[in-house]
Structure formats: structure tokens, C-alpha cells
Amino acid sequence: MENLPLLVPLVIFAPALGAIINFFFGARLEEKWSGYVGCFASIFAFFISLLLLTYVTGTNGAAAVVNPPFFDGWLRIDSIGLEISWGMRVDSLSVTMMLVVTGVGSLIHLYARGYMHGDKWYPRFFAYLNMFLAFMLILVTANNFLMLFVGWEGVGLCSFLLIGFWWDKKAPEGWKNSNAARKAFIVNRVGDFGLLMAMFLIFWTFGTLDFYKAGELPNTEAKYLVHWREHNGLLPHAEEDADAGDDHGKAYKCVPAAASAEHADDGHGDASDHSKSNPLASDLRAIYCDNQHFETDLLGVFGQTGERFGQGETVDFGGFQMAFDDVIFLIALFMLLGVTGKSAQIPLFVWLPDAMAGPTPVSALIHAATMVTAGVYLMVRANVFLWELNHAGYVLGLIITLVGAGTAIVAGYIALGQWDIKRVLAYSTISQLGFMVAAVGIGAYVAAMFHLVTHAVFKALLFLGSGSVIHGVEHGHHHAHEHGHGDPEHHDDDDFDPQDMRNMGGLRRRMPITYITYLVGTLGLAGIFPFAGFWSKDEILADAWFEGFELNVTSGFIAFGVLLIAAAFTAFYMWRQVVLVFFDEPRSEAAEQAPESGGAMLLPLIVLALFTCVIGLINVPKATPIFDGIYHPYEFKHFLEHSLVSVSRGHTLDFNLLIAGLALALGIASILVANRVYKGKGLAADNRDQLETGGASRPLFALANARLYWDEVYTSLIEQPFNRLARFLADRVDWDFLHNYLHDSIIKRGFDSIGELLSRPFDLGIVDGAVNGVGWFVQRAAEWMRQSQTGYVRLYAVVLFIGVVAVIVIMILPFMQALLQTGA
Amino acid sequence: MDVTGLSLTTITLFLPMVGLFILLFMNGETQKSNLKWVAFATSVVTFIASVLMWINFDPSVAELQMVQRNTWAEVTLGESVINVSYFVGVDGISMLLVLLTTFIMPISILCSFGSHIFEERGREKLYYIFLLLLEWSMIGVFVVHDLIIFYVFWEVTLVPMYFLIGIWGSEERIYAAVKFFLYTMAGSILMLIAILYVGNRAGTFSTYSAGGDIGVIERVHSFEGDGTYWDGVGPEGENEDSGFLFNSVESWLFLGFLVAFAIKVPIFPFHSWLPDAHVQAPTAGSVILAGVLLKMGTYGIVRFNLNLFPEATVAWAPTIAFLGVVGIIYGAWVSYAQDNVKKLVAYSSVSHLGFVVLGIFALNAQGLQGATLQMVNHGISTGGLFLIVGMLYERWHTKEMSDYGGIWKAMPLFGAISLVISLSSMGLPGLNGFIGEFTILLGSLGSNYLSFAFTLFGTLGVILAAVYLLKMYQHVFMGELKKPLADEEGYKLTWYEKAAFIPIIIMCFWIGLQPIVFFNLLDVSVDNIAALFLR
Lengths: 824, 535
Description:
Chain A is mainly α. Chain A has helices at residues 8-25, 31-58, 92-115, 122-141, 145-163, 173-206, 257-264, 271-277, 280-283, 301-308, 324-342, 351-354, 360-369, 374-381, 383-391, 396-415, 421-441, 445-484, 507-510, 512-526, 532-550, 554-582, 589-592, 599-614, 635-640, 645-649, 657-678, 690-693, 697-705, 710-759, 769-787, 790-823, and strands spanning 64-66, 75-77, 82-84, 88-90, 254-256, 287-289, 314-316, 321-323. In chain A, the strands form four sheets. In chain A, strands 1-4 form a two-stranded antiparallel ribbon. Chain A has a two-stranded antiparallel sheet with strand order 2-3. Chain B is mainly alpha-helical. Chain B starts with 7 loop residues before the first helix and ends in a 5-residue tail after the last helix.
């Protein structure tokens, strides 16, 4: 059991190996085998993640740091104490992410076998998908910021490759695809700039980039912490805790859990509660430990922050000084910039809708379930920073809340007016990520992670469902054309868009399984009881309400109000989509003839739909009607507590019927309204939306449809000036001025005049011959070169060559003399 | 310290000469097919010799290693007699750059194997002779520690490059060659004057101490009088005096060296020779130019400016670092606007070397380590980019970006290799470029002499690198194939093209994943220099 963390490198190596196999041998493999390799690598990683989960639960949340074999150090410069290793972290937070990534990832791999069937770059697709998994797992298992950054940029690269996967399609679509890919990469780079700056500041402030050192406890206040000992630097030994006070473990203080239960337990419920939710706690003699055996400056980044924050310390960067607390604030702000890039928040969210150019499994895996949540993960990982800043009166929490809540409502609004089935989901993803970021802003880290997990499940389901729909409509279209025209060439150049919801409708009869699973996903996303989204969204809202109305924190008010509206939007646009896609009568030949997808695609849908029904139960609040007593409350929260110091210090809320009821009522009301607007009516005249007909809703719809002109504003404010300035710098400043004018008027004329000076013998005396002789030489050389090419060049080369040989001979002479002398 | 025996450094230095003499006595017409093999074999043997040096090298020793020093001439200047000596040896920095040189040479010879330039211009023999001459002089620049001999090698590098561009270059080769020569020359003259002054003042041209003679560096560092070594008692010994920048001898000497190096690097705004030279040079010329020649400038700054003139370095550090940061952003921005692929890559050098300059003038161990490694990284990545452009040109005979498109589809392997090299150039973590940039920027933030803004704007270069390189990649490799080749065979990479790429790709990953090997090599040598600037 305690050796299980040593398996964690396999989580990365397996998909990496899969990627390598498909890269180098994919062309020689049959399509079937290529898919098997990709899926197997992913499922294997999932299996290892499950084993790691048993380790974390079995040792009651002990964290382990593992250095993979062969890669003991990475960026290490001995003289300056820079030491960055490939250390991997196994704790409850990283295992949660690993399970999401490999679990959802495996299902999407299985789905992709069907979806990508027949694509000429099938092996390459699986190679990219596996490579993505490897990088994503590097990101989530990293124990230091730089390794996290490797994964962070690596997934960005895979995202680039997969968004532009079909760059070779006929113009203009292929070009659009590669443009979307480039846009994603560059916008993400803006975020990466922030993360890089944060890392530089962190290094000079803490002298390390490690999150926690091996043997360090992330949360010394966790209630269920078992005795933890340094065993080979990583492993706990539950049996040996009896002699903890005797040997080298003496240096740190361990307090029996029972004795200090009250001390650490402020508002978390009673002791019986612990044993109930954590049966293992009673078997292993639970003991509190702290990090007293570490010197403060030998702790990891977060441990040091806990010790040093608020002490009035000043950090000296050499060139400038800054108060410690301010440095942390600056770091957090730079980090937030990184988060807005990767997690598609205002102001950097513009790349995500375009990213839908990639194949649908990619949208599901990268641009909904996993990669885009990396920013949320990072902030939760860095919860120590945020918690300390928020409690020291910095406005960071407010800023993050504004970003998150603002994104949630803006993206939710835009989603109301989209026609492309995937674009609706893309904006929905942005909006839901806004929920998570806002949750982080109000300090509800567990709620953010909870929503991350549930969202990964139902949004992957929705994307895969939409892929199934698109697949069906595409086939239906081809089918219709073969019957209608009998011209197989024809459909290549028509402008039928299989992703446009105006071409759909009535698909529930043609694609029943897709329909039912999609419905489950929609209800999950809309937050309807008892599906996953209900629980996680409710927790965010409850936390926001508590922060705002009980504690009078501004960000809480904002988050509660804005997210409630955004939640109503969510339910509305999702129901609009369900109605337009599945209900009423088909609006195109393609939709009439769309076949249901094959088993390879439907199986993942069914599994994900089942999970959407139950995944919300991992974190049921205390005192929830019906569930109370039959299910352990806040299981997920207690699980994460070992990684998040803020959890132990925050508040644990009981189930709040008022808020849950309000959110649920609002969701259902929105669905009913959407149903009323769209059901049975289809589209209005001229393929318009029903909202476009009404007087008041018309401009609102138009604005949403135009995506608030966000992209256009960026184009004219950033892209065009950037390009114009580039042109100006390159043509005017660099070429015309530096390259031509300066060269012709100063350098060349200068040399010419020197040459002229030298050509008159009587002038020679006034200038240093040694220096200017060379100038004259050059001048002559230049003239000769200009006059003619061949003959002179050869002569010249020979002359020069003789000169060089002479120099060499002169140089070697003394050395040969010495050699002769020693010989004699 | 063995100073008279035949050291491994000397052997490595003169191996290219051996090959050169063999070539000299071969018949350019009848033995035409053997010429390239002689050149290639020579460069490989030289590479092996330099690897032997590396194996022999003890990274924990601060002094020069594999030293050889023979007095060559005694120059009488006024009343003092000054030794000029053949003085070679390597420390960590020299070692790494020698390895870079001998690594790049076989690659650039390989990429000339089937080149069309010989069909048009012929003279294959002369071409390879110049390449080997270039290798000899470049190694010389990195291993000699006598200022006069350094100057000789520094100037000799110009000659073969001048002809490589002038004879085998593209349409405007003469203009480019002359411009390249004139610019570098103009800087060198100032350096020569500074060198003569230094020799006169110190009584020796040897920079390091060896065999009982005390070198210039030791004299400077052990100076205990008022003011600085160069200014003697100086203007009341006040270095912080505002007049120091322009009133002290040290400052002027510093500038004398710096201008020569700045033009070579090139530091903004001395870069205007670079696009011409790069665009007009044949592929091998561009690869060597980017891979090694530019590094001579940054190497010179580290070796001479920092060691010989520490006070002036401190005084000028913010200014030069500022030019470095301007170079990072300006180079990237101008690069983005180019429509000519080769020019785009050429300007990217200005941006990348801006990082190196920033790292050097951070004046701490992190910055210097990163800068030295980044010299190597840039050599590998940008050398690789020029190889790519060269291979494209061999097939399509155009450098205009708009003529390309969809190459990845036609040449999948080539597209993948190009992607890796482009990513390494834009600093993707896990590949080599990132390690250098990260360490440099890390150093610049903790520098005693630079403020926060240097790092902030320097890091912006990371965004811009993605902007221009992705533009190139998208336009050349993605989209539809605009100009299919008449002969399908042309899409295949020849064996020597593949062979040229393999070592580059290996190095990209090696430095990216295990840079510790290279940092260890540099550690002590760099720390020695950084120790001068501790505050």
C-alpha cells in the first residue's frame, strides 16, 4: 500500500509511450491497432490513478512526492541553489485531477475510435490525444511550478495541434482551422507570460519553486491526518507510529487526534462525524503533525507563505525591494493572468469559441473537461496565497470574483444567441469555468473543484453528444445527396453546415440514445435535481450567499447575484438547444435521414450519462433532506482537506433549502420559458430565432448573436495596431532608416572618405597606418568585387590565403621550436 | 599547469587546418566528388577531438585547462616590452562554445552536399576550404587568451565568411558581403585600439595568468589602489561619479571592446548588416553565421568586457541591458512583419540574442549561466531554422512566404521536424530554448543592477516569439499546397538532410530535459565571473 505512489510515473509514461508508438509506427499499424494503443494507454493510466486513489484514502490523505527514475534532476545549477526536479505529487488534489483526466479521457478515447473512423490521420490523432494526456498529467502531478508549466505549455501545444488538426481542408475552411489553432496558442502565451512572471517572483521570494517539500504537510490542521513519517522521503508508516517520539521523528511534534479534536475543530461537526465519514480513521491511530521539523526557509512555497505572511517582512530582489505581502499579491495577479488564458476567462477567453474548429472529441477532452480547468486547478493548488491575501484585506478575492462572475454572465449571454451547436457548448464552458473561478474568488475552493469534476463529466457528455449529432447529420446529408443528386462530387463544395442547429430538429426519433443522454447532460448542466450540476452549482451559490449575507464580503454578494442570473441563462440556452436539435420536425433533409451513431460512440455517452446522475453525491452537504443519514456528507471536502489548508479554516455549511430551492426553481422556470418560446414553433420566418421576432428581445438576441462584438473590438484595438506597428517598424524604421539611410549616409560615406584620404599618399602620415590600412584594404576589396567577379576573386583569394598561411606559420614557429628543444 | 606541451586544445584547433591542406592539394575537377568527404571527415574528426576535450575537462576547476602557452613575439611599445604569446586553453564557457562550433560544422557541411549552388557557381574546392578555414578561426576565437592573437582570429573569421557570401550567395550577395565586412571591421578597429592600450597598460596581452606571468585579468582584480586599475588614482577614485561613464579610461576601453562585439552579436541598433548577410548567404553560411559567428560577440562580452572592466560593466549594465530588451521586442516585432522566410528567421536572431545580452548584464550567476546556455540553444535552434529554410529553397527556389503553404502535407517528416525546431526556438518547455530563456529571465529579476521592468518587458518577448514563429509555421507548412513539385521524389528528404537534422533534434531534447550536464560544465567558470559583481 505505501509503495503505491511509486507508480505515479507510469501515469505519465503510459500515454507518452502510446503517443510515441502512434507517432513513429502509426502509419504502419492498422487503424484498429492504432486506436487500441491509444485507448489502452489511457485506460492503463486511469487504472493507475485508481490505485493511487486507494493509496490516498487508505493512508488517510498522506501526500507523497516521487522522483521518477532516470529523471532525478531537471533544471539544477549547483552554485546558486537552483534545483528544480521532476518531482511528482500524489495527494488528494492531484489524484482528483488524475481521475478526471484519465477517466473522462479514456471514455473520449473510446469515443474517438468511432468518431475518427476513416480519417487519413487516424494514428496521428491518437498520438496527439495521448500526448495531450501525458502533458496534462505532468501538469496535475507536478510538485513545482516549473514542472506544472511544462504541462501547461505542453497541453497548449497539443491544443494547437488538435484545433488545427484539419488544417489541410480546402480553403477557406482549412485556413480557418489553422488560424484558430494559432489564435489559441498565442492567446494562451499571453497567459503564460503571467505565469512565467509569477514564477520568477516566487523563486526570488522563496528560493524554491516546489509546492511542498518531500515530507512536508500541506495542511497541518486537517482533522483526519494520520501519523505521518518520513520514510525514504515519501512514505507513511502507520504501524510504526508508536516509536515516533523516540528516533529521528522526535524533532517534530505529534499530537494525538483525540486530544486536539476540539482545538482544530471549529464548526466542523463532532468527532463521531469523522469516523463515520472516514472509517479508516479509527483503525489507524490518527495523530496531528506539524512542520516544526522544517526550518521555515526549507519549506515549500506554500508552507513558507503560511509562516512568513503578515510578518511585515521585506523581500530584496537586488534591483528593488518589496513588502512580502505585496509580493504575494503581485504573484497572485500574474498567476490570475495565466488562469484567464488557460481557463478562458475575461479578457482572454476569445480563443475558446474558435477552438471548436478541432474534431469534437478534442473539444470534449481538451476544451471542456480537462485542459481549460487547469487554471482553476492552479488557483486551488495555490489556495494558500489566495486565502492569506483575502484575510489580509487585499482585493484579490474581489478581482477574481469579478473576472469569474463577469465571464460567467457574459459567456452565458452570448450562448443564448448562437446557432452552431458546438459554439453554444463552448460559450457554456466558458460560462461554467467562470462559475469555478468565481468560487475560487469567494474562497470556496472545494466548491470550485467539485464543480470542476461534475462539469468535466456532463460537459464531456454534451460535447460527445453534439459530436454524435453532427456525425449523424453529416451522414444524413451525404445520404440525402446521393439520393437527391446522384453526384458524389457535389457535396464537397456546397455550403451545408452540419453544426448549424437551423439544419437540425426532430432528431430525438432518429437518434434516441443520443437524445436521452443529451437530455441527462442538459439537466446536469442546468442544475436540476438530482443531477450532478445541481449539487456543485448549489454549493457555489450557497458559499457565495454565506460570504455575502452572513459575512458581509462584497465578492460574495456579487458572486451570488451574478451567478444566479448566469445559472438561469444556462438553463435557458441549453433547453433552447435541446428543442432546436431534438424536438419538433426536422428542418433539413440531412436531419430527416440522420442515422444513430454506432456503439463505439454511444457507449461512452451512456457511461457519462450514468455518472452525471450520481457524481454529485460525492459531496452532499450536511443535513440534506433524504440523503442525510444514508450518505456521508462532504466526503469530497474531507478528501481534499489534506491538500487545502484553507478548508480547515473555512466554514462548513449545512444544506440550505432556501438557496437550493431558489436555484432549482429558477432553473426550472428558465427551462419552461425556453420551452414556451421554442417548443412546437421551430424557427421563425427566414430562419430566424423566435427571440428575433419580438420587439424587445430582438436587439438583445442580435447582440448575443454578434458575440457582443468582442472579437471585432480586439481585432481593431490590438491585432490591427500590432500589425500596423510591425509594418512600420520593419519597413520604415528598420529598412528605410537603419538599413538604408544610416548605412548609405554614415557608414558607407565614412569608409569612402577614409579611402579617399588614404589614396593620397601625403595624407597617410596623419592617420594611424595600422588601423586605416585595413580600411583601405576593405575599400579596394569592395571595388574589386564590384568591378568583376571571377578573375579578381580568385586572385584575391589566393593572396589572402597566402597571408593567412603566413600568420599560421608564424604562430606555429615558436611552438615548433619548443617541440624541437624538448625533443633534443 | 602544462604550458609547453602539445595540448588537446591545440590539436582541436589545428585539425581543420590539416583537412584544409589536404583539400588544397586535391584537384578540384578530377576529385570533385571526394572534396566534400574530406571536409566532412575533417569536421567530424574535429568534433571528436572536442568531445575528447570535454571528457578531459574537469568542471570543478576554476582555472583554464588544457593550456598551452608559447611566447610568440615581444613587442616594444614605448619603453615597455610586451609579450605576445600563443596562449590557448579552455574554461567551461570556452569548452561549451568550442563544442557548439565543432557540432555545427559537420551539419553545415552536410547540408551543402547536394546543393544547387555548385551547379551555378562551381568552385566546390574553394568552398570547403573556406568552411574549414572558418572553423579553424572560430575555434581560435574561443580558445585563445592572448588579446593580439584573439584579434587575429577575430578578423580571420571575416575572410571566409566574406567569400562564402560573396561567391555562393544569392542575388545581392556582393552588397551583403561588403556590408558584413565593413560593419564588423568598423567595430574591430575600435577594439584593436583598446587592445593596444590594454597591452601597454598591463604589460602583457595574456588575459589569464600562466607559467608565472600574471595576466591582465589578475592584475585588474588584484588592484588595490584608489579608483580603478585602468584609471590609476582616477578622478578622485569616485566610480559613482556621474562623469565615470564618459570621463574614465576604463569606460572608453569598455566601449571599444563593446562596439566590436555589439556589432557582431548584433545588439540593437547595430543589426542592420544581419538581414542582408543572412538572406544572401548560402545555407551553410547562414547556419554558421547564426550558429556560431554571432556567439563570438556575446562570448567576447563575457570574456573580456566583464572580466577586464568590472566597474565600467556595472556602470553600463542598465544601458546595455536596456538595448538587449529593446532588441528582444524590436527584433520579434520586425521579424513578424517579414514576408521573406529567411529574413524572418534572421530578425528572430536579434530577438534571441537580446535575451543573451539581458542575461549577461544581469551580472549574476543565473543570468550568465542562462546567457551562455542560450548562446548554444540559439545556435542549435536558429541553425536548425536556417537548415529548414535552406532545404525549402533547394526545392522551391523562393524565399517568399506567400509562395509556400501546405508543406507539412507534402513532406510529413520534414513538417514534424520543423515544428520541433520552431517550438524549440519559441521556448517551449521540455526543449532547449526554454531552459535558456527561463534562466536568463530568472537572473534578470534577481539582478542587483536591473529593475523590475527589464524582466517584465523581456518576458513579453516570449509571447512575441510565438507570434512570429507560428506565423511562419502556419504560412509555410499549413494550408493548401500552393506549388506542387514537378517531381514527387523531391518531397523526400535525402539521407544527408536527415543526417543534418538528427543531431539538432537530439540536442533540442537533451538540453531541454537534462540541462544539468551543461550547467555543470559552466558552473565554476561562470561563478568566477559572477563573483566580481556580488554586492
